[in-house]
Automatic annotation (TrEMBL):
VWFD domain location: 1-132, 297-398
GO terms under cellular component: membrane
Keywords: Disulfide bond, Membrane, Signal
Primary subcellular site in the record, as a coarse category: membrane
UniProt entry tagged with the keyword Disulfide bond: yes
Gene coding for it: MFRP
One Pfam match: C8
Protein name as it appears in the record: VWFD domain-containing protein
SUPFAM superfamilies with a match to the protein in the record: FnI-like domain, Serine protease inhibitors
Amino acid sequence: AFQYSCQNIQRQTCTISGDPHYYTFDNQIFHFQGTCTYVLFAAAPFSLHNGSIQVYQSGFSVAISTDFGLVVTYDSNHYVTISVPYDYQNATCGLCGNFNHHPEDDFRTPSGQILSSDLDFTSLYRSGAFCGILANSSGPFSTCQSRLAPQIFTENCVYDLCVGGGYQPILCQALNVYAAQCQQQGIQLGQWRRPGFCGREIPCPAHSHFETQGTSCPATCSNPSAPSSCPLPNQESCICDAGYVLSAGECVPEANCGCTFEGLYYAEGQSVVLGADCGRQCVCSNRAMSCRPTSYSTCLVEGLGTYHTFDGVMFSYPGACGLTLTRVMGPSQLPNFEVTVQKVPRGPQDFIRVLRFDAEGTQVSIEMADGGKAQVSSLFTLDTKLFQCFLMAFVEQY
């Protein structure tokens, strides 16, 4: 048959007595008289599922014990003991020390510095110095406490701070969570950041500065008047300096803003591929978007008798006096151009071939002469082998 047996839990005790004397978990002894409320012991909070907390008389003291082994006694006068299981080694902070069996480092600060003065050490653990500042009725968060109960935020702060070994940025982040929740409800807080404690100001990117009550709708290139119509409450934020606005996450002079194109904003100099078929490469320059195709199609004419269309169809046509090879069809936002070829009579039995380009008002004519030469606008000549390349390059460009 199964038998149940009980075993004593190995534990360590912190004692506070007299006026007053402190004996830490690691048996470090110091003496300190203070006028504030102090944190004697803090650890990660436990969720007690089907557990129990007992309160009872123990000798001349009142004792509180939990099912995870914590026992606290107080004689209502000058004697307090806190006994914790060995599970809490290296997991405590406060005036009772860190419980790591090294009494020489009990005066360790959250940043890791070991202090030589018990006065300096105890000042770190005033209940308002760390997470307790959230519940301090005369502290910077007091205006929010009636609207947003600080208890759960304080417990989360203690948990995070102890798990993180007292690392101050963790504390600052925990306090900032409560501050942000308060500000989201439109509650204005006191100045809880200060030099040496979470920093009075947060480092901000170039051309911006920190504001404790900054707008939640910063001015941007696409909406420079956003702060004046912002429906959201103010919050801690980095705000662009006067004369600067946000452009793609950076503060830039208003004159250096980018482009708003097809309903989207692009920073100055930004290059992007657009279109469902990724057919346009666009660049923002001087607040205007310029685009070009990412690929091309070519129409080819061989000997003015064989034709290859843009879509690859080949056919033959002996020709006529004038032919339109290609032009922009109908009203269009695309640059307009037209390419034609003509046979111009020269004498009773001869003619010359003239290829004409007309693009956005600029006209170029190529006249094929005897001997395989091509005269272009009477400025220079091309070999006939280059004629097709010249035509192809022009068509590809547009």
